[in-house]
Fold these 2 entries.
Entry 1:
Amino acid sequence: MAERQVAVVIVAAGTGTRAGEVGEAPKQYRRLAGRSLLAHTLDVFLAHPAIDRIVTVIHPDHGDLYAAAIADLAAAARLGPAVTGGASRQISVARGLEALAADPPDLVLVHDAARPFVTAAVIDRAIAALAEVEGALVAVPVVDTLKHADAAGHILATRPRNDLHAAQTPQGFRYPALLAAHRRAAAEGQDAFTDDAAVAEWAGLAVRVVTGDPANVKVTTAEDLIEAERRLDRDRFARAADVRVGTGYDVHALVPGDFVTLCGVRIDHDARLDGHSDADVALHALTDAILGALGDGDIGAHFPPSEMRWRGCDSAVFLADALARMAARGGFLAHADVTLIAEAPKIGPHREAMRTRLAQLCGVALDRVAVKATTNEKLGFVGRREGIAAIATATVRLPLP
């Protein structure tokens, strides 16, 4: 029998309001353990050998958020264009299915973007079941006693839990059957289904429960996000057991001017730092520290000052390149420590702004960044206010060879 083509529809069109305050990014775009929640979910399916195509369905207002989220993925080029979702989950899934219709797969899995802990084994079970039935519902048995209560919270009855299951995703189907079921539901005005198994059941498809995983939880609330980050951090630290530490040092002269840029923060001053780029000694030192941990040369090797295209360049470009080299090897920045050596300007009033900016540039939590400062006790070129120096230490974690 020919190998079956398997596509995945990732549903990421929600606004995620239960996961935080108004104005915060929807939950699927929150950064957890260095990447967006959506990126963690997509990565599982991108790494699965049976998956041929992935369609992500997003909110019409989330194009920029989606682009930023998939930039975290080494295999982002394998993703097709995102599809705009609708006012309900059912409509969003239908649009994702229609996006596959021009070149239909044999099987399709539908998965929630907010379930990053799905495993390859669960995916395998969903796909395998479709050799015998038209639909497969990943689920876990209900173990808690179920109570039926009225609007005031008064218990009306205890419901038997025998044979009850809590639905998870992915939910798998033979693609033509699910597409036909969604089209029929839309034509008949049936729009209140909360998952695809319900659409399939209504259409008369045979759907089988397959063994899910209690750990395959859906991230819904702010508390869920906190717990998800803990789990994702533990997982990635376990995978990246090769711990490297690199150091970097940089110095630039002070010349007449009216501001300096340190750690990406502009500070008014009676002089400026002189250099081929913007002369941000802190970012230069941190870039060299990361490159040192990678054993990948130094900033001058990758961005020669003899090349005019780097004239006046924002030093964040250099740092981003070092971080990209690290990510390409499956690594991440565990901690960054920067010490500035200057008689002036005073660093204290700007320290938190510097930490915040470094954390943003590195894509890490604020507690993984330290910025310190000291004078040179009026000794040497720093003491004479002829320049500013910076020392940086980067702790990088990489997968073992």
Note: The first helix runs from residue 37 to 46.
Entry 2:
Amino acid sequence: MCLAIPGKIEDILNALPMERTGTVSFGGIRKEINLAFVPEADPGDYVIVHAGFAISKINATEARRIFDLLACDETDAPC
């Protein structure tokens, strides 16, 4: 089973097209992520990340919905 989670791009570290990387925040945990597959994504945008690669851009509403679902799973509370 594969899992991809949303994160918010904080800044771009390398803008070269095939080496594009940036700092992405996952609820306060920051990681350097490859952004080559989402050239349209900019700081402030949300992306879905799998295995260190951003694979698509999503809107803030969808990102919040996913965060809420993950929070429900952590507490075993009904959602």
Note: The beta strands are 5-14, 21-26, 29-34, 46-50, 53-58.
